[in-house]
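User: I'll paste a sequence; please echo it back and then give the predicted structure.

Assistant: Echoing your sequence first, then the prediction.
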Amino acid sequence: MTLKTAIIGSGNIGCDVLCKVQRSELLECTLFAGRNAASPGLALARERGVAVTDRGAEGLFAALDTFDLVFDATSSAAHQSHAPMLEAAGKVVINLTPAPNGALCVPSLNGNDLLAARNINMITCGGQASIPIAQAMTEANPDIHYLEVVSSISAESAGPATRLNLNHYIETTESALRQFTGCCNVKAILNINPAKPNVYMQTAISALAAQHDLAATEAAIARAVARLRAAVPGYDVIVEPHVTGDRLFTMVRVTGAGDYLDPSAGNLDIITAAATKMAEAVARDRGERGPAPAEALAMESVA
């Protein structure tokens, strides 16, 4: 039996999630919600045979009995408004906005610990691309005292909500870096590049420490990359880990599957693939133990 899901947010992220959900054997999209009846996203959903509403959250709440899990691809402010009500209604919410609500999730690191969470926070595209590598660096080099991640994405792949939410993008990415690495001094930067042809998503990760174990770092990063590629085959290290003075550096590039935008939009793929993977894990878990009562799904939000 498939897990019935809804998607709210008809922009790039919502459309890419729809493509992945419809390819999954464990998930079914029963409703696609937006706010503009003429939007390309709602048109795509109609073409794919999915019920749509142009009443946004209002339309979603009018159809609560048609889904069990919601992918939220709206904005940070919108998520903070309607997510608590969805949680109160017993729905699982997968948060693809930069809002701080929910349990911070990188599926390859803590996905199995969050199967009972009511609000699962997928952090940001830069967070999904960088945190597994940053965690590998700190695993191999426990005395790292500063981490910096710089992600570059194409302007075409950065929709209006992404641009509106830049402050929360930085705050949530940095909060997740601290949580997963244990390093308190962190910085996250996002560059939106208007160049044509579109630039591919790239993320540079730097770490400062008095001493580095390069061999252990290479091994830890190789393990992290292998786990990531299970969900995102286009995830590649393009600058091998190396040390200059007290700085450890590496860079990754994410080539997308091209489900909705062209493959340069790896920033869509890295977060939508992670979100879909988590939804599939929830579906498997429910299939093994049956639907969980609402109280069993409760988890305190990470503010």
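The first strand starts at residue 3 and ends at 8. The mean pLDDT is 93.
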